[in-house]
Backbone:
């Protein structure tokens, strides 16, 4: 009985450790350097870190198919980058605080494009 | 005139005869008439406002359709289901797309965040309000043969501003419990 109890406790402990490894900083240095952060919903960020924030170049991939590749500033999409939508549409251009801002080109999955300027997420020609 | 007098006379005779019955008997008769009247009223009301005669048949048909849908959904793999060409997940057929749509009620947070990228008003309100949403709905449009998902971003405390985002639901997530909207195309 005691052996069984100890076995259950050990199994839970190992299971907990293995689950814990699946989220958080799963590879590299996620403080200052280059590292991979995996969120509990399987969103991942692979890229540069400064003082625990996403800063520099990196790729953020959402589990539902969105992916952003480009510049980050204080963990936000900021600078130049490309967002790919799950259906194949994309926006390539400038970003500010997670919003399309500045020059860019939006391409729909059917090949149709829209080029111009965006202001805080809104297209302004 | 004579006829009227005769009728009045007849009534008086009837009343006097009724009054001759014992009190308990008269009360029983009254109670029985009241019960019959109430029963009759409810009978008439039931005919006018009562349940549809075909309700049971419709219910059985709906149950069959639901069972068929559940059976089909159970055969789909757990994970991402898409209605577009994609490297991830399983591509749904038109029939599967409709059934999955009709049986999906929940929109995931990632789908909401994704749709907000192309809707600055929703993005701002969603961010300012700590990522809270109000009502959401997933509906199949028979005319367009498409699945539509919409959600309302809750107004900030003290204001009535709210934003409703609507788009085509093209991606779903199948969990062990249900199916959920995973991608809304609103651009």
Residues:
């Amino acid at each position: 009985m005691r052996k069984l109890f100890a076995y259950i406790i050990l199994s839970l402990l190992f299971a907990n450790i293995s689950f814990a490894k699946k989220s958080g900083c799963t590879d590299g240095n996620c403080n200052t350097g280059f590292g991979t952060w995996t969120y509990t919903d399987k969103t991942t960020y692979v890229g540069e870190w400064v003082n625990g924030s996403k800063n520099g170049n990196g790729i953020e991939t959402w589990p539902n198919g969105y992916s952003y590749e480009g510049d980050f500033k204080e963990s936000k999409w900021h600078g130049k980058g490309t967002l790919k939508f799950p259906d194949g549409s994309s926006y390539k251009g400038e970003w500010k605080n997670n919003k399309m801002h500045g020059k860019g080109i939006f391409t729909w999955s059917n090949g149709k494009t829209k080029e111009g300027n965006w202001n805080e997420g809104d297209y302004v020609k | 005139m004579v006829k009227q007098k005769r009728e009045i006379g007849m009534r008086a005779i009837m009343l006097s005869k009724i009054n001759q019955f014992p009190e308990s008997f008269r009360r029983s008769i009254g109670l029985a008439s009241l019960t019959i009247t109430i029963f009759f009223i409810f009978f008439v009301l039931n005919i006018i406002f009562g349940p549809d005669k075909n309700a049971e048949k419709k219910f059985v048909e709906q149950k069959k359709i639901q069972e068929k849908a559940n059976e089909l959904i159970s055969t789909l793999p757990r994970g991402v289901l898409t209605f577009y060409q994609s490297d991830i997940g399983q591509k749904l057929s038109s029939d599967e797309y409709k059934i999955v749509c009709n049986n999906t009620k929940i929109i995931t947070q990632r789908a909401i965040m994704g749709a907000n990228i192309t809707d600055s008003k929703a993005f701002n309100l969603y961010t300012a309000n700590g990522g809270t949403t109000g009502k959401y709905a997933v509906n199949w449009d028979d005319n367009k043969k498409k699945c539509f998902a919409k959600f309302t971003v809750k107004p900030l405390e003290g204001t009535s501003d709210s934003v409703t985002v609507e788009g085509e639901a093209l991606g779903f997530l199948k969990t062990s419990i249900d199916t959920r909207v995973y991608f809304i195309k609103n651009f």
